[in-house]
Structure formats: structure tokens, C-alpha cells
């Protein structure tokens, strides 16, 4: 069954909106605050490329998101071993960018169901934002299965590369907020309920960054960590009135700009819909898939992916 036009519009907004945020933020990664607005005070030319990225080129965030989405469709549901195999095939093709911890887990030679846990046990460093960044397709897919299924899938997908439960809890919160937005609700109103579903020993840190008065300047970690990344995306949504303003605000935070903007774009795209994502950004958007026979997805293919993910 095809969902109603408004739900379709929001689902495409989440998937394409995340990819656009990723591509928009990529050239500004590890840069200072306000670099984006200083360079582009008015609309036009923002998909500039740089730092090794072509204009409109999406990074590992969207590449991995596409792999998750295609696995869900081709396997008819969550098949974690299949997702892990796709990730491994991609990682082996030497993508331009890959998270350090994700690379260690995918190339370490351990089985899908123990690799991330083993890495976390040995390193104790796994609370990165690398599972948050690829959430849009799975959030769209599982929304129709309801809240419990959404939270469970988010945690399992996160655990493929991130053994730290904090990564899984943050990814679960993001999936739940996108689920609410797809149904036409306000994800900001849904924050307290999402927090209530977070593991008790993880709840306090997420409550801090998701508080209505929290500002990214208050972050106690680099925004490559799960807490400030999620908090910054929700802050960007809360303090702006459009998709465009939200992702601009996200990139202007500096730091891990592609991922913060990818997470922001997923949320803001789900809220404002694909109609709010500027065409001057979508028309140059492209997502190479290293390891998959030179495939490159553009906005029409991402749109088709989102439509299939949201349709029964
Ligand atoms: Mg990236």
C-alpha cells in the first residue's frame, strides 16, 4: 500500500534531506564555527565541494545509509548479517571517508555479531555518531511497524559497528523522533517520551543535550560523539523554521559538519518534507557507492529508495 502523499513527502524529505545535509557539510568538516555563513551569506553556490569532495558529493554517512535501506528492501526486513556484509564490501573498496571505529570493526575479520562488541571491549571508545548518521532509511522503513519495532531495529543496526550502548540509545532516539515526524507529529514534543525509552543508565546524558534550553556551545565532547551530535540536530530543528535554515545552522556549528548536518537533515526533512529541500541542492547531489560496481545514486534514485522504504 502506498501511504498518503504527506507521509511520502516527509519520507523522501528524511532520506534526501539527510543526504543533502551530508553533501552540504562535507567540505566544512573540522572547520570553525560560522565558516558556511561567512562564505555563503545569501542563497546560491553552497554545494561548493572541497576537502576532497566534489560539489554535491555525499560521504560515508549517506553511502552507509543507502546500504542499510537496500538491505531492508532486498531482505524484506532487518537481516543484520546482510547489512554487515554490505558494509564490509563497501569498506574493502576504500571509500574516501570512513569512521575510524567503523573501519576497525568492519575490517577486523570478526563475525558480524561480535565484531563491534569486541572492539568496544578492547578500546572502550565507541560512542561516536557513526550509527546516527545512517538512520534515515531504517527510520522510514520501520515507522509503519511502530515504536517498539523502530527502537529495537535502531539498536540492532547501531550495534553492528558501535558496541557502546550510548550509540545505540542515541540512534534509537533519533529513529523515534523521525517516526513521529513522518506521522505528522512534532518530534520536539516527542522528546520526553523518547527519553523515557532510553536505558536508565544512559538517560541522563541524553536528557541534558535534548533539554529545550541546551545549546551546542555547552557540549562537553566534540560533536563527533553521539550526545552532542544528536543534541545539535535537535537544537537546529528547534531554533529554525525551515529545512534550509536548519541544515545551515548545523553546518555553521563546525566540527563534524557532514554528520551533524546529515542527522539534522534527516529530522528537518521529515518535518518539512521534500518540497522544502532546495532544488539547487538536490540537483547536484550524488552518492557514490564504492564496492558496488561504480553505482552512483542521484536524487531520483534516492527518492525511489525512500518511496519503496515507506510503502507497504
Ligand atoms: Mg561523512
From TrEMBL:
Sequence positions that bind Mg(2+): 59-61, 256, 258-259
Cofactor remark: Binds 2 magnesium ions per subunit.
Gene3D superfamilies in UniProt: ADP-ribosylation/Crystallin J1
Cofactor(s), by name: Mg(2+)
GO molecular function: hydrolase activity; metal ion binding
Keywords: Hydrolase, Magnesium, Metal-binding
Family note: Belongs to the ADP-ribosylglycohydrolase family.
Name by which UniProt lists this protein: Ribosylglycohydrolase
Species of provenance: Streptomyces malaysiense
Lineage, opening ranks: Bacteria, Bacillati, Actinomycetota, Actinomycetes, Kitasatosporales
Amino acid at each position: 500500500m502506498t501511504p498518503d502523499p504527506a507521509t511520502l513527502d516527509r519520507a523522501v524529505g528524511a532520506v534526501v534531506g539527510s543526504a543533502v545535509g551530508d553533501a552540504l557539510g562535507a567540505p566544512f568538516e573540522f572547520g570553525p564555527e560560522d565558516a558556511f555563513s561567512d562564505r555563503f551569506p545569501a542563497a546560491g553556490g553552497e554545494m561548493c565541494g572541497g576537502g576532497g569532495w566534489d560539489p554535491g558529493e555525499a560521504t560515508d554517512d549517506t553511502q552507509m545509509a543507502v546500504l542499510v535501506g537496500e538491505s531492508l528492501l532486498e531482505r524484506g526486513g532487518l537481516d543484520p548479517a546482510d547489512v554487515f556484509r554490505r558494509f564490509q564490501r563497501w569498506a574493502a573498496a576504500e571509500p574516501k571517508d570512513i569512521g575510524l571505529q567503523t573501519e576497525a570493526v568492519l575490517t577486523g575479520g570478526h563475525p558480524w555479531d561480535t565484531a563491534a562488541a569486541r572492539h568496544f571491549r578492547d578500546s572502550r571508545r565507541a560512542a561516536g555518531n557513526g550509527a546516527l548518521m545512517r538512520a534515515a532509511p531504517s527510520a522510514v522503513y520501520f515507522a509503519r511497524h511502530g515504536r517498539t519495532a523502530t527502537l529495537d531495529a535502531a539498536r540492532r543496526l547501531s550495534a553492528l559497528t558501535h558496541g557502546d550502548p550510548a550509540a545505540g540509545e542515541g540512534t534509537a532516539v533519533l529513529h523515534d523522533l523521525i517516526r513521529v515526524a513522518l506521522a505528522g507529529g512534532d518530534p520536539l514534543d516527542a522528546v520526553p517520551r523518547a527519553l523515557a525509552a532510553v536505558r536508565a543508565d544512559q538517560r541522563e546524558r541524553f536528557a541534558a543535550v535534548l533539554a529545550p534550553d541546551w545549546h551546542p556551545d555547552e557540549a562537553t565532547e566534540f560533536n563527533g560523539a553521539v550526545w552532542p551530535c544528536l543534541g545539535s540536530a535537535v537544537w537546529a530543528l528547534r531554533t529554525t523554521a525551515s529545512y534550509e535554515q536548519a541544515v545551515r545552522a548545523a553546518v555553521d556549528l563546525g566540527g563534524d559538519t557532514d554528520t551533524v548536518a546529515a542527522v539534522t537533515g534527516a529530522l528537518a526533512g521529515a518535518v518539512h518534507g521534500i518540497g522544502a529541500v532546495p532544488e539547487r541542492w538536490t540537483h547536484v547531489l550524488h552518492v557514490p557507492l564504492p564496492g558496488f560496481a561504480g553505482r552512483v545514486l542521484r536524487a531520483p534514485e534516492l527518492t525511489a529508495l525512500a518511496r519503496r522504504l515507506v510503502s507497504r
